[in-house]
Amino acid sequence: MGKGPQEATGEDRKVQEKLRKSGEIPRHIAIIMDGNGRWAKKRGMPRIAGHTEGVESVRDIVEVCGQLGVQFLTLYAFSTENWKRPQEEVSLLMRLLLKAIRDETDRLHTNNVRLKAIGDIAALPREVQDELSDGIEKTQHNTGLTLALALSYSGRWEITEAVKRIAKDVSEHRVSAADITDGLIGSYLVTAGIPDPDLLVRTSGEFRISNFLLWQLAYTEIFITPKYWPSFRRDELYAAIRDYQGRERRFGMVSEQVHSPGPEQKSLLKSFIKSVTGP
Ligand code: FPP
Q1: Of 54, 71, 76, 176, which is most buried by a Cβ count within 10 Å?
Q2: 34 and 40 in contact (C-beta within 8 Å)?
Q3: Count of Cβ atoms closer than 10 Å to residue 175 Cβ
Q4: On the CB side of 61, how many CA atoms lie within 13 Å of its CA?
Q5: Across-strand partners of 72?
Q6: Residue 1 has what pLDDT?
Q7: Which residues contact ligand 1 via a Cβ below 6 A?
Q8: What pTM does this model have?
Q9: pLDDT beneath 50: ranges in the chain
């Protein structure tokens, strides 16, 4: 039996078909999942209830991205700064994460999803690391959506680590300083091999990047919604994609160059977009 995302049904299927026809589906969507605590507080519930409901949103968004043919979905699940939260919340979050990976790996696998983790994975509790590597190994040959979980991740941490490794390779003569280009830097980042995000979604109405994918977001379209993450479900994602389809991505050029380029501009544009988003 072929593997693939469970097909959308009924009205939802029609919405997805319409969305595919109305424009391009972003190849890579990155999401800052924010507002779990406020969602819970508004309902008089403990913060962890917001995180638990947030897992339901993760499940829905992963499913719909697979159905739409999104190739990469990167979720900011735990930042380097999140370690500073009260110890009780950190440990509950780690337990929730462990349970979510344990419970969801089989479903991800049947849906042809390839699991990845980006960040300082060695800083996570041993059992989370083990569960993650099992899930990554099991799904490594899947060819549908790549789901990258950013865990103990921050953009500055990632860039610092890359600089250290480049400096080491220069000092040991594996790389010459003259060879340092943005492409080379990209290949030292934890996202090497993943194209830059086309669309960044941030929930809970904050207008911040919060140390997420600082290098990779250079030309990404940003969509901010006031919805808290536990209330962000497929209809909100459809709205974000519709909004994205109405944007004009110029990559620093002018409108005419993007829309009616001459042969020289065409090839310039092609190689530039390739350098930004990957092959
Ligand atoms: C931000 O809300 C959310 C987090 C720090 C954690 C996100 C984690 C999950 C949704 C659960 C596990 C994820 C996966 C991938 C299975 P917040 O706590 O900062 O909310 P607030 O700003 O309202 O306080």
Answers
A1: 54
A2: no
A3: 17
A4: 28
A5: 28, 146
A6: 44
A7: 33-38, 51, 54-55, 58, 75, 77, 82, 96-97, 100, 149, 229
A8: 0.92
A9: 1
